[in-house]
Amino acid sequence: MNNELFRLTISQAQAALRRREFSAVELTRACLERISAVEPKLNAFLTVAESEALIQAAAADRRLANGAPALCGIPIGIKDIFATRGMRTTCASRILENFVPPFDATVVARLREAGAVFPGKLNMDEFAMGSSTENSAFGPTRNPYDLARVPGGSSGGSAAAVAADECLAALGTDTGGSIRQPAALCGVVGIKPTYSRVSRYGVVAFASSLDQVGPLTKTVRDSAIMMRALAGVDPRDSTCSARPVPDYEAALNGEIKNLRIGVPKEFFVEGMQPVVDSAVRAALKRLEADGAAVGEISLPHSQYAVATYYLIATAEASANLARYDGVRYGLRAEADDLSELYGRTRAQGFGPEVKRRIMLGTFALSSGYYDAYYLKAQRVRTLIRRDFEAAFGACDVIVTPTSPTTAFRLGEKTQDPLQMYLSDIFTISVNLAGLPALSMPCGYDGNGLPIGLQIIGPAFGEGVILRVADALERSAPVPRRRPAAV
Q: CB within 10 Å: which end of the chain, N or C, has fewer?
């Protein structure tokens, strides 16, 4: 068993570490050896911090001898968007290629305090702008189920690393589906919490009113364990809620009798892969068999979600990325004056997709267009939020597909940005409304690629979506399949 410790879940490893079946150092070495074996194929890690991880693991072993928090000794990968003290943090961009922060993001600090082990930083779409992890300045990550396909994005490195057993869990961020969509394409569990449930301090900003931090894990129970550690008030993030954090793991009782599940008719669309449709509907039948009441609902303004998102998100990105000017930190190009310095630094440092979104956002905010585009998008956002509020008057959770297709091929959508943007058609409206949502595997297509199901809850309803996900996981007709390509 010791040769394959990397295959354990958090809850399994947690119990075994406390029984002294193996040490945190042994578990960490197993994950590092796994990383060494599969990284040439996957490119999920941008930085592997072997010596630091082993030092953390040795410290965790000392804590475990006297009782320790749930995540003590557990190897957790960190998406390269989180400031990590003393460890390179690139956001998969040339403009931050050599940036080493002097502080930790709040969520990283919380994991560090809990005794977690950081094997390294994970690949992503540059500045979290993408749905395939093909926009990384350091090369794409590949899907561990099929190396010719994408892992999803922007947290593709996080999803691929967890699916390939390179770490027991990973941190991701979700602005329009960037945890849930890669979780679906890589067959893992990913949760986007309610906006304000988890601190964003120390997270490189993309779109500040949409960005949210969450975990990617192998099981629903592991997501509940991670959420307990990550959530909670942070005085350094003024948008962070002071609401007490419940024991999410205690909610996993398998009981969903009489729970009302809404199925939005707008989310079962023409062009969706038939196997995705049938797998989600089969999962709904299992929930009904467990005593839940399933009924159709409507979210009428969801058809405008993609257009609304790409106005609001790009406008906020335009403002947030103005700080990368070659003066304060990051890349600094050679130039004769300040204007030339700004232009050359950004031209050399930003990739094509980031430049595209900055230009879109700057246009949406420009004089004469602000009312027509940005302000109108904010009004539609309110309508989308109200649709959800009305829906939750009739149901407790909403179930949809996570992505309209299984993992697509590398290069398949890179020349058609609109088709790439539509990969997030089922996830974007949740960010606009600020609600919690979880993606979990609900089957496989004919090529053995995972299919994702999304469970959406009301604000601060993480407990109920985890409970429904746990019930589905318990009733799954087939166990999770290991990736064939690694």
A: N
How confident is the model at residue 477, as a pLDDT?
83
Q: Inform me whether the pLDDT recorded for 422 exceeds 90.
A: no
Instruction: Please confirm, yes or no, whether 318 is among the known catalytic residues.
Output: no
Q: What angle do CA 462, 465, 469 make, to 5 degrees?
A: 135
Catalytic residue among 131, 132, 136, 154: 154
**Does position 3 have pLDDT exceeding 80, yes or no?**
no
Looking at residue 2, its pLDDT comes to 62
Point out the catalytic residue in the list 11, 178, 403, 439. Answer: 178
**Active site includes 79?**
yes
Query: With contact defined as beta carbons under 8 Å apart, do 136 and 125 qualify?
Result: yes
Spatial separation of the C-alpha atoms in residues 474 and 471, rounded to whole Å: 5
Conformational region of residue 69, where left means phi above 0, alpha means psi within -120 to 50, and beta covers everything else? beta
Domains recognised in the chain with CATH numbers: 2-259+468-474 (3.90.1300.10), 304-379 (no CATH)
DSSP line for 243-279: PPPP-GGGG-S---TT-EEEEEGGGS-TTS-HHHHHH
The pLDDT score that the predictor gives to residue 1 is: 44
Question: Which of 177-181, 271-275, 380-384, 450-454 comes out lowest in average pLDDT?
Answer: 271-275
Q: What average pLDDT is seen over the chain?
A: 96
Cα angle 131, 425, 358; round to 5:
55
pLDDT value of residue 45: 98
Residue 421: what pLDDT?
A: 82
| Known catalytic membership, residue 93 | no
Output phi, psi for 268, to 5 deg.
-115, 85
Alpha carbon 12 to chain centroid, angstroms: 23
Residue 26: strand, helix, or coil: helix
**Side-chain half-sphere CA neighbours of 164 within 13 A:** 34
